[in-house]
Specification:
Layout lengths: L1 E3 L6 H9 L2 H12 L2 H16 L4 H6 L7 H12 L5 H11 L5 H16 L2 H10 L6 H13 L6 H11 L8 H11 L4 H11 L1 E3 L2 H8 L5 H15 L1 H14 L1 H15 L4 H17 L4 H5 L13 H8 L5
Parallel strand pairs: 1-2
Helix pairs in contact: 1-9, 3-5, 6-7, 6-8, 7-8, 7-9, 9-10, 9-11, 10-11, 12-13, 13-15, 14-15, 15-17, 16-17
Length: about 325
């Protein structure tokens, strides 16, 4: 089984958690402010310079310093410039790919694309102006913005990027496109998720995506994954299967499992149907609210009581 960055969300997922809505953004901001005495000692001089920036261009020059609390100050100052900021932001996004420092490139992409996220349709249109000048990391974040903005005109752009990015495993830039496909209701998503199962390519978000968008044809594989993983890792594929079963209905679940069994072995048809019916009843009887508990980021924005494993990567250390 191919496991991509086991247990770790992709950068696109962390980005989406942060910019899902204003409530999520405020939650992370408040978490930083709870460390204010420490962070202000470190970031105070940067914050002062950012707040004094007289123009969009001057503020963009200070972008590398927009970390910690200074990042919030940067966004606050940029908002004050209104839509006159869009064209210079597009220009800056076009130039970032020339930087040799990968970490700095990614930090700047996150900063500027976050700003476009909060600009609504104007922000998405600005993103489109520089799309071809972005690297795959930035396009992955851009896909998240397209999906959250429900910008259906971008569906084919997302699909094209996905087809290209998924050929670059083990890099996980394709996950940003999957988020956009989910948010835009792209019917092609279910088939792509099924292919990951068939190829045994597992990544942090796979079972959550299947819970939200998988189809009955994936049930047999999911149950196999659950059995293989046992108590230590089988719960997620099982819960994904229950969500698919609840959407599909008992009859579709039974037929899918009977067909899967027939493909796998020379089975007695009546016995296969009996076992499929038992499995269907178990799946459908599972409380539906469990999916929201197991895959919270697939059903809602962040909450203050989310586990440190979810919240930690967003504001742990410096850059949240």
């Amino acid at each position: 089984m191919s496991q991509l960055a086991s247990g770790q969300p992709s950068p696109a997922t962390l980005f989406r958690m942060r910019v899902y809505d204003r409530a999520a953004d405020d939650l992370v901001r408040r978490a930083k402010e709870s460390l204010a005495p420490i962070l202000r000692l470190r970031d105070g001089a940067k914050i002062a310079k950012i707040r004094r920036a007289p123009s969009v261009e001057d503020l963009l020059d200070l972008s590398p310093q927009a970390t910690g609390l200074a990042k919030e100050a940067w966004h606050e100052r940029m908002r004050a410039f209104g839509n006159e900021a869009l064209s210079p932001i597009v220009g800056a996004l076009r130039q970032i790919i020339q930087l040799d420092d990968e970490e700095m490139r990614q930090c700047l992409y996150i900063l500027l694309i976050t700003e476009l996220r909060w600009r609504g349709d104007d922000g998405v249109l600005a993103l489109m102006q520089c799309w071809e000048d972005l690297d795959n990391f930035a396009k992955s974040l851009g896909c998240v913005v397209i999906g959250l903005a429900n910008w259906e005109a971008g569906s084919e752009l997302v699909w094209t990027f996905y087809r290209q990015a998924q050929r670059s495993l083990p890099e996980q830039n394709f996950v940003g496109a999957l988020w956009a496909m989910l948010d835009l209701g792209d019917a092609r998503l279910a088939n792509e998720l099924h292919e990951f199962l068939e190829r045994r390519v597992v990544f942090y978000e796979l079972f959550g995506f299947l819970a939200r968008a998988g189809q009955a044809r994936s049930l047999g594989l999911l149950l196999d994954y659950a059995a293989e993983r046992g108590a230590s890792g089988g719960f997620e594929p099982w819960i994904a299967a229950t969500e698919i079963a609840l959407r599909s209905g008992r009859a579709a679940v039974v037929e899918s499992l009977v067909e899967y069994a027939a493909d796998e072995v020379e089975a007695n048809l009546s016995e296969s149907r009996r076992q499929a019916e038992e499995a269907a009843d178990m799946l459908i009887s599972t409380p539906p609210q469990l999916a929201g508990d197991v895959f919270p980021i697939f059903y809602r924005g962040l909450r203050a009581d989310d586990a440190p494993g979810i919240m930690g990567p967003l504001f742990g250390g410096d850059e949240g």
